[in-house]
Design brief:
Blueprint (H helix, E strand, L loop, with lengths): L2 E5 L3 E2 L5 E8 L7 E7 L6 E6 L6 E3 L7 E6 L4 E6 L8 E8 L4 E2 L2 E2 L5 E2 L3 E5 L2
Parallel strand pairs: 2-13
Antiparallel strand pairs: 1-3, 3-8, 4-5, 4-9, 5-6, 7-8, 9-12, 9-13, 10-11
């Protein structure tokens, strides 16, 4: 019954901004940690960001730190990823995922999340 839908992906110029949304149905998103991941063709899936349900603590990959911001609006059952100063290397399909915790080891966000959305395409190109 758990369902996640990402939206907001688009074609944008380098230096531009996008805001991705992850909307949950069938459960209360506020009880769960939410992670954002991305995958480009031929590359491994990368954990981008995560926000805890417990203390609101956040994680960012070094590649996006200072440019991306994760936030949540529990009344709307939605988590956002604000992406600024976008670079061509940010081009990927972006997925949101939920589980009980954000698990980080050696600076890397674990991709072992229980539920995943279908993804939204972000393309950064001139």
């Amino acid at each position: 019954q758990v369902h996640l839908v990402e939206s907001g992906g688009d074609l944008v110029q380098p230096g531009g901004s996008l805001r991705l949304s992850c909307v949950a149905s069938g459960f209360t998103l506020g009880y769960y940690a939410v992670g954002w991941f991305r995958q480009a063709p031929g590359k491994e899936r990368e954990g981008v960001s995560c926000i805890s349900s417990r203390d609101g603590s956040t994680y960012y990959a070094d590649s996006v730190k200072g440019r991306f911001t994760i936030s949540r609006d529990n009344a709307k059952n939605t988590v956002y990823l604000q992406m600024n100063s976008l670079k061509p290397e940010d081009t990927a399909v972006y997925y949101c995922a939920t589980d009980q915790f954000c698990v980080v080891a050696a600076g890397i966000l674990s991709s072992d999340f229980g539920s995943w959305g279908q993804g939204t395409q972000v393309t950064v190109s001139s």
